[in-house]
Amino acid sequence: MLLAIDVGNTQTVLGVYRDNELVHMWRIGTNKCLTIDELRERLRGLFLIDHIQIHTIDGVILSTVVPELRRRWCAVAKRMFKIDALVVSADLVGDLIDLSAYPSPDIGQDRIADAVAARAIFGSPAIVVDFGTATNMEVVDRSGRFLGGAIAPGIEMSLSALVEKTALLPAVEFVDPGVAFGTTTAEAMQVGIVYGEVDRVDGIVRRMWKQLGYETCVIATGGMATTVAPLCSTVTDIDAELTLEGLRIIYRNTVMNS
User: Fold this and answer.
1) pLDDT tens-digit profile of 112-163?
2) SS (H, E, C) the chain
3) Which of 182, 223, 231, 240 has the greatest CB tally within 10 Å of its CB?
4) Is 256 inside any structural domain?
């Protein structure tokens, strides 16, 4: 079985695949201070809860936007499973997606995985909106080329900054306020945060369509996708496992071509 690990700034998503089927998935908080041994114990606990035998894992693929955790998760794979983790990079995608139009060497590993999965599952053209710590938007054109995208503060980051930088504004729940202006401070904040994110996404997607010259499917993923995406008029699909699917596809393609 394959263990896919996507380390984000706020959450780490792990998935276990049997062939092409996702049989287990967990979301845990990302903690940059955890040691290799602490990560091993956390992973061992997840396996124990869901009755997964360590010896059944024969492959590990890793995507991380937290550089200091890359080495530690690779060490976890080596110590627990006696295998080297495959770390996502532009060099691994092969013919899965064309990255030549985006030559920047610092493209995020999660962005690569999202674009690969979108093309493989939903076809080209496509736009991915990944609602995480940052809201990432990725564009794949009709010919399967990754053209680039947009990166903005995520909804949780926006609220955190608003609360931290003001004296009287409270933390609020992420829910659809159902009104265009609030009659309480909490409701007013929900309007600004939630609908601000919704309208930003819809507005940028339409600008992307205009630049492309045609419309695309729009796939939402990430931890906040189920909250925000249903309110967006441009989002056509929600796939909470999209990044993990991209990791699975990259791993299988690499193994078959090795």
Assistant:
1) 999 999 999 999 999 999 998 899 999 999 999 999 999 999 888 888 888 7
2) CEEEEEECCCEEEEEEEECCEEEEEEEEECCCCCCHHHHHHHHHHHHHHCCCCHHHCCEEEEEECCHHHHHHHHHHHHHHHCCCCEECCHHHCCCCCECCCCCCCCCCHHHHHHHHHHHHHHCCCEEEEEECCEEEEEEECCCCEEEEEEEEECHHHHHHHHHHCCCCCCCCCCCCCCCCCCCCHHHHHHHHHHHHHHHHHHHHHHHHHHHHCCCCEEEEECCCHHHHHHHCCCCCEECCCHHHHHHHHHHHHHHHHC
3) 223
4) no
Question: Which one is catalytic: 58, 98, 106, 110?
Answer: 110
Mean local confidence (pLDDT), 65-92: 94
CATH assignment at residue 40: 3.30.420.40
Domain range enclosing 13 = 2-87
Residue 27 lies in a domain: yes
Whether 102 and 75 share a structural domain: no
| Percent of the chain surpassing pLDDT 90 | 73
pLDDT tier at 80 (50, 70, 90 boundaries)? very high
